[in-house]
């Protein structure tokens, strides 16, 4: 999940649940980008026609993994990434320079505020895993802002997830505690905090915004013990579960002592030979009326 919070943001804008000043979070997001792209079967597994796409934007790009991969795969397309974290943007910019990707660029920008781009600036606007910071009441405004910077006929594309599905108690409980904290923070669509609850909403958001030719493609990424994705997700979640603890304790759904015990149990569970778990991702896309 893209969950990072830049320290330079004001407290009023603070809906990000992990501090990006932590170097472990940057490394985690870099790994997560690769895991998600691989698990989805590529950058655009839904087969979107990119023939008329010359400039695209990735919102909340983190350390820029999706932007860099897309710019490398499509050298004829300018790919722009924005993120609230100055540290993430500095890293992504340096990577673009090192890799010689002149068609990749990055800017510091807060997705919860008006985007500093002119109307019709892009042919495609993309987001991945923004569920953890995008406020429910902000979604209609955010989609209209994305449509504003899209040209007529441009493509709006969202990929997000539901997590916590496994056969182990401590693993499910840890994910569940985060879901409850997210609900108490007013950042969840779930009426009871059992889930994050965004996936059922995505198509309706695009429909209500007037998008047409709306498409959907679901992905299941299995990272059970012995699968190809297991080691990557083990290291990713080992960091994520630790970095999410301050957010969980802030909203008083568990004590630090409880989380410390639970964390050790989760690490043991994920290394058991009968550990089974999946992430469910959904990509929804639509076209701006033109």
Write the layout of secondary structure elements.
Elements: E1 4-5, E2 18-19, H1 23-40, E3 55-59, H2 65-73, E4 78-83, H3 86-98, E5 104-108, E6 122-128, H4 139-148, E7 150-166, H5 169-184, H6 202-208, E8 212-222, H7 230-243, H8 245-250, H9 256-270, E9 277-287
Parallel strand pairs: 1-2, 3-4, 3-6, 4-5, 6-7
Antiparallel strand pairs: 7-9, 8-9
Helix pairs in contact: 1-7, 5-9, 7-9
CATH class reads Alpha Beta
Provide the succession of SSEs: EEHEHEHEEHEHHEHHHE
Structural class: alpha/beta
CATH overall fold name: Rossmann fold
What portion of residues is helical?
Answer: 25-40%
Describe the protein's architecture and organization.
With 290 residues, the protein is α/β, with parallel strands linked by helices. The protein has one domain (4-287): Rossmann fold. Helix content is 37%, strand content 23%. The protein is built from 9 helices and 9 strands. α1 packs antiparallel against α7 (230-243), α5 (169-184) packs across α9 (256-270) and α7 (230-243) runs antiparallel to α9 (256-270). The protein is globular and about 55 Å long. Mean pLDDT is 93; it is low at 3-12.
């Amino acid at each position: 999940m893209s969950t990072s919070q830049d320290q330079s943001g004001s407290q009023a804008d603070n809906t990000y649940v992990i501090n990006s000043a932590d170097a472990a979070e940057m490394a985690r997001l870099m790994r997560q980008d690769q895991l998600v792209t691989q698990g989805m079967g590529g950058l655009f597994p839904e087969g979107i026609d990119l023939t008329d796409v010359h400039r695209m934007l990735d919102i909340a790009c983190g350390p820029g993994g999706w932007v860099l991969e897309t710019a490398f795969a499509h050298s004829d397309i300018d790919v722009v990434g924005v993120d609230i974290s100055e540290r993430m943007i500095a890293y992504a910019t340096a990577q673009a320079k090192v890799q010689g990707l002149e068609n990749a660029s990055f800017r510091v920008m807060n997705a919860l505020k008006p985007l500093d781009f002119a109307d019709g600036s892009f042919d495609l606007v993309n987001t991945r895993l923004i569920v953890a910071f995008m406020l429910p009441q902000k979604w209609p405004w955010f989609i209209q802002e994305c449509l504003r910077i899209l040209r007529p006929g441009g493509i709006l594309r969202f990929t997000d997830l539901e997590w916590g599905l496994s056969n182990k108690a401590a693993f499910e409980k840890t994910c569940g505690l985060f879901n409850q904290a997210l609900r108490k923070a007013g950042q969840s669509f779930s009426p009871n905090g059992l889930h994050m609850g965004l996936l059922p909403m995505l198509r309706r958001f695009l429909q209500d915004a007037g998008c047409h030719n709306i498409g959907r493609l679901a992905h299941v990424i299995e990272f059970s013990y012995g699968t190809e994705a297991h080691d990557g997700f083990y290291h990713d979640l080992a960091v994520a579960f630790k970095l999410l603890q301050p957010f969980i304790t802030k909203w008083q759904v568990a004590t630090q002592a409880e989380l410390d015990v639970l964390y050790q149990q989760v690490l043991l569970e994920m290394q058991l030979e009968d550990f089974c778990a999946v992430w469910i991702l959904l990509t929804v896309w639509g076209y701006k009326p033109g």
